[in-house]
């Protein structure tokens, strides 16, 4: 089973995402929250690339998918935080 074999990678991803949510709730400023969302998104993309690279199935469409998801999250938060 894939989950049993990759428990460390999934635990790391969950920790990164939970830390992002925790820091987001900790800091009230819009700009700080935006930086936290950007950093969490970058770590999400890095995790995805590393994970697929370790399983020898990294392809351009997979990287593109992770980048698009991260960009979508960043854009959503940029519009909802009312920066500026």
UniProtKB/TrEMBL annotation:
- Its name, as the record gives it, is Uncharacterized protein
Q: Where are the transmembrane segments?
A: 7-27, 33-53, 60-81
Which keywords, in A-to-Z order, does the entry hold? Membrane, Transmembrane, Transmembrane helix
Source organism per entry reads candidate division WWE3 bacterium CG08_land_8_20_14_0_20_40_13
- Is Transmembrane found in the keyword set? yes
């Amino acid at each position: 089973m894939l989950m049993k074999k990759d428990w460390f990678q999934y635990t790391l991803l969950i920790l990164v995402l939970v830390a992002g949510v925790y820091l987001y709730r900790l800091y009230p400023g819009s700009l700080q929250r935006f930086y936290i969302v950007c950093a969490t998104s970058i770590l999400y993309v890095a995790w995805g690339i590393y994970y697929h690279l370790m399983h020898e199935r990294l392809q351009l469409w997979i990287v593109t998918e992770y980048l698009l998801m991260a960009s979508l999250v960043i854009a959503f938060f940029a519009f909802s935080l009312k920066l500026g």
